[in-house]
Amino acid sequence: MSKALKAVLAVAFLAVVFVGVPMLIAATGRSDLYYTLTSVALLSIISAGVWITFYIGRINIGQGAFALLGGYVSAILVMTYGVSFWLTLPLAGIFCALVSVLIGLPILRLRGVYFAMVTLTLTEVARLLALAVPITNGARGIVSIPLPGSVTIFGVTVIPDFATLSNPRLAFYFTAVTLMVICFAGLYRLVHSRIGHICQSLQQNEELASSIGVDIAYMRILAYALSSFLGGIGGAMFAAISQSIYPSSFTIADSVNFMLNCFLGGLGYVLGPMLGTFVLYFGWDLLFQTGSFQLLIFSSILIALMLVLPNGLLSIRLRSQSQG
């Protein structure tokens, strides 16, 4: 695909999400869709973090732990210390990144299968900590979190106070979509940078990468820190939208879904987590009418898709090009 075509597609995508979708929702009066699409955008950001660990050849089944941790960090800073939500957003991501470094230092030296099994327990550990630590209020969680306030720079209001808006859902939608665009643009740039090429070499052959002087442990920890950073930001945004955070806000099932989003969209494609999240989220809702057969049908379709398209839905484009 040429650079010109990529630029056109990028502009078209931005026009759809920032102009087309709000106009369509305004025309139909379905303002409830803002919350749905905001959730999809945030879930795709968290899933993008999981995709980064896949990019270095590691299976990450613990992203829900960092989403939960990010939500609590933001909520505690806002409710207990009166910190502006917009400042807690990067702080939540940084805190999660630091925690992931402490966790990653010992376990990222293990073989991939051991790393996957360790991360599988992280979400449950985070949930149990949230139940036990007094500052999190245990099972009661943290509720009545105020909506994000305004941001003023040199006397100019850059971001309005969400509580004063007639439709804060629209404001949350624009915020989430903006974060999503920044996230995947940064991910695309990372993949096509020198660090991205090194990460890809780890996925293909770690011994060969090590033989040419690549610090494997450092690159693994860096990728895991970036992954957890995105999880923390996504969790913080979810806490702000729902104005609450509970130990059960993110479970092991969510961690598995974050991983499935990457598989479904395509592990070899930067936009794989975004497409996978969209399909998984709306696919589950569409099957709601099947009642008790919802989970059976849904899991069967997922298994079939992974068997027919092991490289994800985005690999359909390559198949069609090769057949043409």
Question: How is this structure best described in words?
Answer:
With 324 residues, the chain is mostly helical. It folds into two domains: 1-30; 34-251, no CATH class. The protein is 72% helix and 3% strand. The protein has helices at 3-28, 33-55, 63-81, 85-107, 112-132, 168-191, 194-204, 206-211, 216-242, 252-265, 272-286, 294-308, 315-323, and strands at residues 142-143, 151-153, 156-159, 244-245. The strands form two sheets. It has a two-stranded antiparallel ribbon with strand order 1-4. A hairpin with a 2-residue loop joins strand 2 and strand 3 (156-159). Helix 2 crosses helix 10. The longest helix has 27 residues, at 216-242. The radius of gyration is 20 Å and the shape is globular. The mean pLDDT is 89.
Short description:
This protein is mainly alpha-helical and 324 residues long. It has helices at residues 3-28, 33-55, 63-81, 85-107, 112-132, 168-191, 194-204, 206-211, 216-242, 252-265, 272-286, 294-308, 315-323, and strands at 142-143, 151-153, 156-159, 244-245.
Helix fraction bin: over 70%
Question: What structural category characterises the helix and strand content?
Answer: mainly alpha
- Report the mean per-residue pLDDT as an integer: 89
What sequence of helices (H) and strands (E) makes up the elements?
Answer: HHHHHEEEHHHHEHHHH
Biggest sheet statistics? 2 strands, antiparallel
